[in-house]
Design brief:
The N and C termini lie far apart (77 Å). 7% of the residues lie in helices and 25% in strands. The protein has a domain of 147 residues: Alpha-Beta Horseshoe (Leucine-rich repeat, LRR (right-handed beta-alpha superhelix)), CATH 3.80.10. By secondary structure, the protein is mainly beta. The strands form 4 sheets. It has a 6-stranded parallel beta sheet with strand order 5-7-9-11-13-15, with no helix packed on it. A 6-stranded parallel beta sheet has the order 10-12-14-16-17-18, with no helix packed on it. A 4-stranded mixed beta sheet has the order 3-4-6-8, with no helix packed on it. A hairpin with a 2-residue loop joins strand 1 and strand 2. The structure holds 2-acetamido-2-deoxy-beta-D-glucopyranose (12 copies). The site of one 2-acetamido-2-deoxy-beta-D-glucopyranose (NAG) has 7 residues, from loops. The site of one 2-acetamido-2-deoxy-beta-D-glucopyranose has 4 residues, from loops.
Length: 296
């Protein structure tokens, strides 16, 4: 009979992985969940740089839960957070990170990682927060539920599956190369409070479905090549909690509508500089509420 212990494994691990193209064969006693160990080995394998304090482990770090950037659930012993921002990591992300199947938070922001994003990563059942900002990732964006991945080289259209999650609260895809028209069904995105798509290469109009974003408070669409300001404002006025609206560098040379029917009850700041708009500051903007109105 084989008894498999689900919790902590005492392992004699023999790992073969490469750091900076050297192949090392290391054996040691580690208390670390077997799947987590495989996930970490895969992660290290994709990296070209090493992580100080990870390998080889010294006597005080025999559990991978004690390694820098790693947090485990103390009752299950499984890795739930992997946070290594600004660690000068180079290389790419390995598909075998999918073995970190209890991961909830992944923060690898501000490193020098590149390559495509492994799709398997985003199928992790408990993953809630992904911050891959400020790296050099490229390729097509997989269908995600949660995402902050600004300042990469992501291309393609905004994935329709972004709309699948009623739990998503923040999307930041600023400063990428996303293009096409935005074709996302927003009717389920009831928790989305912050949407930043600043500096991408979209085209056409702001989609009608944005009017379903009932929790939306912050929206930045600067420099996205949108047109038709009048239609856009008619859509966005349906977002009842919209507080900050940034539309800079779009709607080139259009006219600021003087439509008396427009209502933005909660709007505190409208930033709409560098659009070469014509017309005058319209009456529908409450001059007391709007503190950040800029028009150039
Ligand atoms: C691993 O553990 C065994 C038994 O606890 C011990 O005899 C051995 O010296 C340990 N090996 C290392 C490399 O620490
Ligand atoms: C052993 O590893 C731990 C965790 O990475 C680290 O805090 C500690 O300074 C290391 N000790 C030595 C002697 O290198
Ligand atoms: C920690 O693990 C236990 C047992 O698997 C689980 O019941 C609990 O929800 C986990 N807690 C967190 C914060 O993940
Ligand atoms: C990731 O880490 C950086 C640096 O500590 C921090 O500024 C950022 O807020 C973190 N991301 C998330 C989503 O918590
Ligand atoms: C990671 O880099 C290696 C070597 O450069 C390459 O073979 C592999 O396809 C890359 N993987 C991804 C997911 O980009
Ligand atoms: C993004 O792509 C451009 C053009 O392909 C390239 O010049 C630039 O170096 C890339 N940036 C990063 C951070 O990889
Ligand atoms: C994303 O979802 C769309 C529609 O559901 C599908 O056609 C596409 O293949 C998916 N892309 C990826 C990378 O999973
Ligand atoms: C935009 O992203 C590129 C990398 O793709 C980075 O070099 C640049 O600093 C970012 N710009 C801003 C304003 O964040
Ligand atoms: C929306 O967010 C709140 C606060 O973060 C959370 O309590 C609630 O469960 C979320 N609703 C859904 C449908 O996920
Ligand atoms: C944006 O789209 C235009 C027209 O399709 C193209 O010429 C330009 O290279 C694209 N820019 C980026 C950053 O993808
Ligand atoms: C958007 O999704 C909702 C809920 O799944 C659905 O009822 C509605 O028909 C969808 N709208 C469009 C235009 O696909
Ligand atoms: C709108 O904002 C108010 C005040 O911040 C908040 O109490 C309310 O829950 C928000 N409504 C929605 C639908 O998010």
């Amino acid at each position: 009979m084989i008894v498999v212990l689900q919790s902590l494994w005492l392992l004699v691990v023999i790992l073969v992985f490469s750091i900076q193209n050297q192949v090392l064969v290391i054996s040691n006693n580690l208390t670390c969940n077997y799947d987590d160990m495989r996930g970490l080995a895969g992660f290290m394998n994709g990296l070209e740089s090493s992580i100080d304090g990870w390998w080889p482990p010294n006597s005080s770090s025999l559990s991978c839960c004690n390694w820098v950037g790693i947090t485990c659930n103390s009752s299950s012993g499984r890795i739930v957070r992997l946070e290594l921002p600004s660690k000068r990591l180079t290389g790419n992300l390995s598909n075998s990170m999918a073995n970190l199947d209890q991961l909830r938070t992944l923060n690898l922001s501000h490193n020098f990682l590149k390559g495509s994003l492994p799709v398997s990563l985003f199928h992790l059942p408990h993953l809630e927060v992904v911050d891959l900002s400020g790296n050099g990732f490229n390729g097509v964006l997989p269908n995600l539920s949660y995402l902050s991945a600004h300042s990469n080289n992501l291309s393609g259209v905004l994935p329709p599956s972004l709309s699948n999650s009623p739990t998503i609260s923040s999307i930041n895809l600023r400063n990428n190369s996303l293009d096409g028209s935005i074709n996302v069904n927003c009717s389920l995105m009831v928790n989305l409070t912050s949407l930043d798509l600043d500096t991408n290469n979209f085209s056409g109009q702001i989609p009608e479905s944005f009017k379903n974003l009932e929790s939306l408070s912050y929206l930045s669409l600067s420099n996205c090549s949108f047109n038709n300001l009048s239609a856009s404002l008619k859509i966005l006025q349906h977002c009842p909690n919209l507080t900050v609206l940034v539309l800079t560098i779009n709607f080139y040379t259009e006219q600021l509508p003087s439509d008396y029917d427009l209502r933005f009850k909660e709007l505190k700041a409208l930033v709409i500089a560098n659009c070469r708009l014509t017309g005058s500051i319209p009456l529908w903007l409450n001059p007391l509420a709007v503190v950040g109105f800029v028009m150039e």
